[in-house]
Amino acid sequence: MEPISHFFYSDRLKLQFWDYGQDSKPSLVLVHGGLDHARNWDWVARTLREHYHVYALDLRGHGNSAWAPGAMYSIAEHVLDLSALLDIIDDFPIRLVGHSLGGGIVLHYAGVYPERVHKAVSIEGLGFPLSHGVHDVQSRRIRSWIEAVRDAEKRRAKSYPDIASAVARMKQANPHLSDEVAQHLTLHGTNWESDGSLVWKFDNFARLFPPYGHRVEDTAEVYGQISCPVLFFWGLDSFLPVPDSDPRRLAIRNHRLIRVPAASHWVHHDQLHIFLREATAFLQD
User: Fold this and answer.
1) Quick one: which of 23, 86, 114, 125 is 20 to 30 A from 98 by CA?
2) Among the residues of 91-190, which ranges form H helices?
3) Angle (nearest 5°) at CA 171 between 191 and 28
4) pTM attached to this predicted model
């Protein structure tokens, strides 16, 4: 089963989304994380489409979506793009599932449009940890961002001589991945160069978040507006700490957090059966 590719426009950018079917069922939208792509959801979508009409978005600067001029990749722009897609789908209140950056986008949308979201699932998507540099004082944050952008302007995207080399890099990023999953993610996440080498599809400037939009107090205020139930997943082998006392998580009135053993940041890959069991039960009425 292959999903159908569609394109739409948001903020003058041509963005892609994938339609897994099925008509007449309630709609559910999947939002991937940073430097990833929508086809990472294929295994999740194949199960969830038994109950829902499933869509998956390629974020701006990722997958087959356009790169943003000026590297405009703040949370606000991503939420804008998601809102445009959801208006096209037009099936409110809707169910949303997001991973990492996508999880934060989903939560922001649910806080800005609480009446439009029925349920939300966030896989390690809360925002940068409280210890991250984006929470530094404004003057140092702007300076760090400027220096990161100037450095990025001097670098070229890394290329790989063949699929096997790119797959090896994928497995280095997440050693929990099986060969099958790593191959799939790599095939859908790379483009061929004229010399036969491969490069990742994502815009390298999507790594650089602007020095605004990360204030914990602002995010907690947005999350405090969420009225739907929220389910968090957190991998106990993740590089991100479990947000036990994070004020952004605590601002969400109706939420539950599932700690998943033997799972890294990509819980839906590393422990697919646990994720599908818990998420399916949660998303149902």
Assistant:
1) 23
2) 101-112, 138-152, 163-173, 179-189
3) 70
4) 0.98
